[in-house]
Amino acid sequence: MEKSFTNNDMGLFCPLCDFVMIPEKDLDYLKKYNACFSCSTKWAEPNLEKWKRGWRPTSEQIKDELLKRKTEFISFNFN
Predict the structure, then answer these.
(1) Which of 28, 38, 51, 61 could, after both became Cys, cross-link 57 (CB 3.0–4.6 A)?
(2) How far is residue 30's CA from residue 21's CA, in Å, rounded to a whole number?
(3) End-to-end CA separation in angstroms for the chain
(4) pLDDT of 5-38, one tens digit each?
(5) Interatomic CA distance for residues 51 and 22, integer angstroms
(6) CA neighbor of 5 nearest in space, from 26, 27, 20, 21
(7) How many angstroms separate the CA atoms of 28 and 37, rounded?
(8) Cβ(69)–Cβ(63) under 8 Å?
(9) Which residues pair with 13 in a beta bridge?
(10) What is the pLDDT of residue 50?
(11) pLDDT by residue (tens digit) across 36-71?
C-alpha cells in the first residue's frame, strides 16, 4: 500500500539509508516503497515479494552500498 507523501512532507533523507533525497527523483519511490530511488531499485524491486513481507537489507549491506554511492557523481538541478 502506497503512503501519501508530498514534496513538502517527504523529508530530506531516505528512511532506509539516510542518504539525501531529491524530490523529483525519489518521491514516487518513497510513496511506493518508503525508500529513495536508489534503495528501491537496489533492494525493493528485485526482492519485491520479500519486501512486501517486511524484509530489508542488513545494516552492513546498506553501509556497503553507501560507500559505493559516495564515490559516484551527483548532479543537482536548482531550477
Answers:
(1) 61
(2) 9
(3) 32
(4) 455 556 789 999 998 888 888 999 999 999 999 9
(5) 22
(6) 27
(7) 8
(8) no
(9) 20
(10) 97
(11) 999 999 999 999 999 999 999 999 999 999 988 888
Cβ atoms of residues 26 and 14 within 8 Å = yes
The answer to whether residues 36 and 26 touch, using CB atoms and an 8 Å cutoff, is: yes
Residues 43, 15, 45, CA angle at the centre, nearest 5°? 20
- In angstroms, what CA-CA distances link 2 with 21, 28, 29, 32, 39? 18, 9, 9, 5, 16
Cβ atoms of 14 and 39 within 8 Å: the answer is: yes
Q: What is the DSSP string of 9-64?
A: TS-SB-TTT-PBP-HHHHHHHHHHHSS-HHHIIIIITTTHHHHHTT----HHHHHH
